[in-house]
Amino acid sequence: MFYRPEDGHGLPHNPFNAIVTPRPIGWISTRGSDRQDNLAPYSFFNAVAYVPPQVMFASTSAKEDRGDTKDSVAQIRDTGVFAVNIVEYAMRDAMNLTSGPWDRNVDEFAHAGIDKAECDTINCPRVANAPATLECKLTQIVKLPGEANFAVFGEVTGVHMRDDCIKDGEFDVLSFNPLTRMGYRDYSVIREKFSLKRPGE
């Protein structure tokens, strides 16, 4: 099968997300200048550079009470900071609850019963019990083709790792089992890993 996206795929559901999979989930926490806290998951998320460490996430829809985007991007525009919380399998239901189209005045931490902590290098909340959190300073927001597509890039200014996730000097993903996003309404979980040496090593 071949299709051009501009012509449509002819399938019951869009296969694009199922092709680019699995994707890590960035659970983005923000705080507006009005002190309103927000927490929302984004599966268009990844690390993009080592030195300095940098990450990105993309928002692809809008809410009526935010104009051309959603709460996360609107608040990052406002304050210039955000945090990326890593989602473990045990927090899948709480993460899913924060994905709803809630009013801009809803604090998703409270709505989903998630413990909140303060970041160290930025004025922003974080998920207190997350396996890891990356505190980020905005570097740029890129408007992508499409009505409400924005890519947000940030430099990591602080890193939290939960103590029980550090094993033999390494951050051990199997100690918490990262949740990943697939296509449609599907998710997966990392429960095994293997290593490969690069040529010449």
Automatic annotation (TrEMBL):
InterPro entries: Flavin_Rdtase-like_dom, Split_barrel_FMN-bd
Top-level taxon: Bacteria
SMART domains: Flavin_Reduct (SM00903)
Residues covered by the Flavin reductase like domain: 18-173
GO molecular function: FMN binding; oxidoreductase activity, acting on the CH-NH group of donors, NAD or NADP as acceptor
The protein, known as: Flavin reductase
